[in-house]
Every structure is written in C-alpha cells, then in structure tokens.
What we know:
Strand content: 25-35%
Radius of gyration: 21 Å
CATH topology of the largest domain: D-Amino Acid Oxidase, Chain A, domain 2
Number of helices: 7
CATH architecture of the largest domain: 2-Layer Sandwich
Oligomer: single chain
Amino acid sequence: MVEKSSAAAIDVDTIVIGAGFYGCEIALQMKQLGHERVVLAENRPGILERASFVNQARVHNGYHYPRSIPTALRSHVNFERFVEVYRHAVLFDMTMIYAIAKGSRVSASQFVRFCETMGIPCREPHVRLVRLFEPGLIDECFLTHEIAFDSRRLADDLSRRITESKLDLRLESRAHVVGADDRAVTVAVGASTFRARFVFNCTYGELPFAGVALRAGIKRELTEMLLLRPPHLLAKVGVTVMDGPFFSTMPFPAVGLHSLSHVRYTPHWAVNDNNLRHLTPLRSNGIAMLREAAHFLPCLAAADPIRSIFEIKAILTRNEDDDGRPILIEQSEASPRIWSILGSKIDNIFDALDFIAHRDWTW
Length: 363
C-alpha cells in the first residue's frame, strides 16, 4: 500500500537491485534516459556472478522451443540483434547440431516444418557429424545456427560502461525495499538507506526476497551444470538432443570448457515457497548425466568431467508445464514506482530495454 507523501528528500532517481546482466543493462538504460543518480546494488563481490554466469551460455535462435511458438519467435527476433550488439562476447566459429531422438515429443519432420515456418536455417550436417551419434537412438540430426556467449567478456564490457557512465555501483551490498509513498521508494542498501523515485528488482532467483511482493508465481529450481573438457571431436561443437528427457552440451567460453545439462539430472529440487531462500545440493548428478548423454553421443565417454556449478533457476509457474519462457515485467501493487523483471533468456534483454525506453520516467 502506498503511503501518503513524505517531506523527506529524494536521494536518487533509480535503484536497481541485482547486478546480473539484466540489472546492469537496465541501470545503464536509466542513465541514458536522463536519470543522473542511479544506484546499482549487488550483494556479490562482482557483477554477473550468479545466473548470468551459471547457464548454458546459449544465444537462442528459436530451435529450442518448437512447442512454444511465441517463445521461439522472440528468440529468433532477438538473436541477430544480440549478435550485433554483443559481438565482442560471442563465439562465432562453433557448430550447433540439433538431434531428434527416437521417441521425441517432436518428430524430425515436425522440427523441419517448424524451422521452415520460423525461417531459421536447418540442414543436414556433414557425415562426420552424423557419425557422432548412436544411430539406433537418433532419428535425424540437423545443422543449425546458434552460438555461445562469454559471460566474462560481457562482464568486462559492462564494468567499463558502468565506470564511464559514473553509475553508483554498490558491491557486497544487499538491498531491500522497506517502504514507499507516492513520491518515492525507501530502500536499504547495505548500511545506507535511500529514497528513490523508481526501483527495479532484477534479482532473478532472489526476486521474492527483495521486499517486493509478486503477483506472478515463481518456481525456484536448484540446477546443476557439469563443466567438462570435451573430446577433440566436439571441439567448438554444440549438441542438443531433443525433445524430452534428453541433454545438451556446448562450448562454455567463459572457462574454455563445455557445459552439459540433462533434463532428468540438471534439476535437483524445486520450491514454490517464498519463505525458503537457500537451496543446497545434497549430491552431484554430474557423472549420471555424462553417462546418460554418452549413450546418444558415444564420444562423450572420453570427456573429462571437471566440476559442477549450481544455481537457482527461476520459472514462472504458469509456464512450468510447457516450453514457454516469456519475460516477466511486473509493476508492484504496493507502489507504481516499483518494477520486478524476470528474464528467461539472455536475449530477452531487448524486450525489457524496449519496454523501458517507451515509458515515461520523469514523474
């Protein structure tokens, strides 16, 4: 509930909570829109250290979502734009293969029709790539056009832009909304307290814990990604086997390895309870996911597992039973000056920035 106006001074124009990829870009966007006093608060020692780093590092072009045309379309629309804007941080010289497993929920012919409808490249790969797969388990495989991004290069570039813009970056500073009136929102940032004209909650898996109540339901899922040194046959090659309880492995440029995720083994456990903040892994599923993936891609038996990385994945509960991964942009019921933003994929950033660019932030 918005309180009556307070005579207290307004300290800053905007506070962005969470210095992941979305938080950094939104803070910089508000600077460009004329907000001189912008605070970017992050409880970690650096930027892009959590979900912006712990993910498959895939720039989606729509192939992953044949059962959710709206999500596929947004991915395709944003793909070339992402490549152009962040070309310094993408791996261009990689090959991406999508393989349709026997028993897939999407057949090979359906996948081809989907790609034709979307207008995205899909063709038969060279025979040496076809031979990577166990023929009895795969119907067909296709050469596609997707790439990986390097989160550390993104972080380096964002750090430079944050410094040049004179944005007030507060690291190791947990932020929490403590109140609001019709003029401003009061936010505790570390040991300081600010009154801001606008607040953006961009904390992804921490969205429910920033003092901003959400109308949208969020399922928080503890996930595991295995980092491995790939066999030479998979150098700069990414593979996604779909559609069902299968896997994906592709270059992870930030550390010069490959990532491996598996639909059955990557999720550990999930909660819809906003009172349970910390999810802790009880074990690693890395060896199990590698063993299962090697059934379909035998050369993976020669991969060298290095380590697993764990992170909280946030999913809108209304989409947990389908492939839809829309971006959430929600204005708070407590104050029209508070916004929560949940991006499902890195390329959704343009949906958020375009939304912000077309609103009035001068009141």
